[in-house]
Design goal:
Layout lengths: L10 H16 L25 H27 L7 H33 L4
Length: about 120
């Protein structure tokens, strides 16, 4: 799943993303688009409704896994494991740091939006 052992995106996933982008680009722009989560009467329930709580939970679990992986690599490197390089360890730690910082920023925006809504005059 990694490119060069550093932890990248699988080439198969990149190809699948490119195919999706090409397919989306070839769709006619004038076709009506149904709102997400609001199925038209008689429409098939093929489109899953995205729950905010589930998306948030999945994101937090991903950040936690990234931090755990970085911590494990750091411990293995500190203990002298020859299979772990300094560059892999530093990259994993930076990815973990960036993921955590972005999560904190999203949380700050959510708290700010909550305060704005609570302070609205009714």
């Amino acid at each position: 799943m990694s490119i060069g052992g550093i932890g990248g995106i699988d080439p198969g996933r990149i190809q699948a993303m490119m195919e999706q982008l090409k397919a989306a680009a070839t769709k006619p722009a004038a076709s009506p688009v149904a709102p997400v989560g609001l199925g038209a009467p008689g429409a098939s329930p093929a489109v899953a409704k995205l729950d905010f709580a589930d998306a948030l939970k999945t994101t937090l679990e991903s950040v936690s896994a990234t931090q755990k992986e970085a911590s494990d690599l750091g411990k293995r490197f500190a203990m002298g494991d020859d299979t772990v390089s300094l560059s892999d360890t530093m990259i994993a730690m930076q990815k973990s740091s960036i993921a955590f910082q972005s999560t904190v920023q999203v949380r700050n925006k959510l708290v700010s939006a909550y305060h704005d809504i609570m302070n609205m005059q009714v």
